[in-house]
Design a protein that fits this description.
The complex is a heterodimer. Chain A is mainly alpha-helical. Chain A is built from 14 helices and 6 strands. In chain A, a hairpin with a 5-residue loop joins strand 5 and strand 6. The chains are: A mainly alpha, B mainly alpha.
């Protein structure tokens, strides 16, 4: 794949996402696929499931840019199918509301195409310790677990304007860059397609948000990170870019009642000066708010700086320690 | 750099120290077969990370007025 084709693909995905959003937002509002923007004083209603525009744009871009690209491999189609299937699971969840216990199971099923193409692979490279052999556990456990964990991680560290699209853009950009310079074109192609979508969607998701990505956008971004990491042999880099979400998940799980915190402590509230007041249960965003009173916009900026730091760390470790 | 970015720096410290723990376990379990050698070292990293998260939350509580729930 040449640089020109990559930029055209990036441009097409972002242009289609950008053009779809003004069409999608009124329809989502009309059909009641909405969510409350709870971190604003007046709690306005906003369109949910904005991630559907990225899903549609990725398919349209692939069809439009197909003549420009080199023949696509089965590995690419399997990884792309996995990300799209996870996006469809998210879409179903946004529309009908799936039970929490079914979501990881359905996301694991969506990873079957990736399991199929990565069947022969058996090890993961780690810095300093080298290759760790997993044998059959790689396709049977590591691949579905990576897709499920990554998708749910990106669904956990969410809920603030611009955070979901921002972290997805930074994480996917870092992995796309790494896969490109290492000659892993299947992985970089997936990255370019979804990077364009999330960058364009960020315009609508940034403070004050006009639309939320919904589970369609969050689950799909996690699946894209996992797919690029697995296909591009960048498993460790994918783990590093997911560290902010891993911190948030671990902090929440370390509490005595990990699944009942919102019921016990409530949500983050907004003071009259626009600063956020966090509930007392442990979470990454609450750690930022506890250490310094901040507005939603500044909180998201701090979290994106953290994501950028881990993206840079992933690039440095992969290039210099592996 | 803002005051809030201390959390990012602390988190990088947690990741670094848990990686160091993993490396120590890796060296100490050199006699095991490759699969268990890797799995035990990765488990050490996960354990170090979880302990680091507790320390991070407590460190934030110490540096701020809002203490938050204990873990």
């Amino acid at each position: 794949m040449n640089i020109l084709a990559a930029f055209i693909l990036l441009g097409v995905t972002s242009a289609v996402t950008f053009a779809l959003m003004p069409f999608l937002i009124p329809r989502l509002l009309k059909y009641g696929i909405t969510g409350l923007d709870i971190h604003k004083a007046d709690k306005p209603v906003r369109a949910e499931m904005g991630g559907a525009s990225i899903l549609i744009a990725s398919l349209v871009a692939l069809v439009l840019a197909y003549p420009l690209l080199d023949p696509l491999s089965l590995t690419f189609f399997a990884a792309f199918s996995t990300v799209v299937l996870v996006g469809i699971v998210g879409m179903v969840d946004d529309v009908v509301g799936l039970r929490q216990r079914y979501k990881p199971f359905l996301v694991a099923i969506a990873s079957i195409p990736l399991v199929y193409v990565l069947w022969g692979r058996a090890s993961i490279n780690f810095p300093l310790i080298g290759s760790v052999p997993f044998g059959l556990l790689y396709p049977l456990l590591v691949v579905p677990l990576a897709v499920t964990t990554s998708a749910n991680f990106s669904n956990i560290l969410a809920g603030f304007n611009g955070l979901e699209a921002g972290t997805a853009s930074i994480a996917i950009a870092a992995l796309t860059f790494l896969s490109w310079i290492r000659g892993q074109y299947d992985a970089s192609l997936i990255g370019i397609i979804f990077l364009g979508g999330y960058l364009a969607f960020l315009k609508y998701n940034w403070y004050p948000a006009k639309a939320f990505p919904g589970d369609t956008g969050t689950l799909m971004s996690g699946a894209a990170v996992a797919a690029i990491g697995l296909v591009g042999r960048l498993e460790f880099a994918a783990i590093v870019v997911s560290m902010p979400a891993a911190f948030d998940f671990t902090l929440k799980m370390l509490h005595r009642r990990p699944f009942a915190q919102r019921g016990i402590f409530g949500n983050t509230t907004v003071a009259s000066d626009g600063k956020l007041i966090p509930p007392s249960y442990p979470a990454l965003a609450h750690a930022f708010m506890n250490i310094s009173a901040m507005s939603e916009k500044n909180l998201v900026k701090s979290l994106l700086i953290m994501e950028a730091a881990y993206a840079l760390l992933a690039i440095i470790i992969t290039q210099f320690l592996m | 750099m803002t005051k809030a970015d201390i959390v990012t720096v602390m988190s990088l410290g947690v990741v670094g120290l848990s990686a160091l723990l993993m490396l120590l376990v890796w060296r100490a379990t050199d006699f095991l077969e490759p699969f268990w050698h890797g799995i035990i070292s990765l488990a050490a990293w996960v354990a170090g990370f979880a302990i680091g998260c507790v320390l991070l939350w407590r460190g934030v509580a110490r540096l701020s007025n809002n203490k938050g729930a204990k873990i």
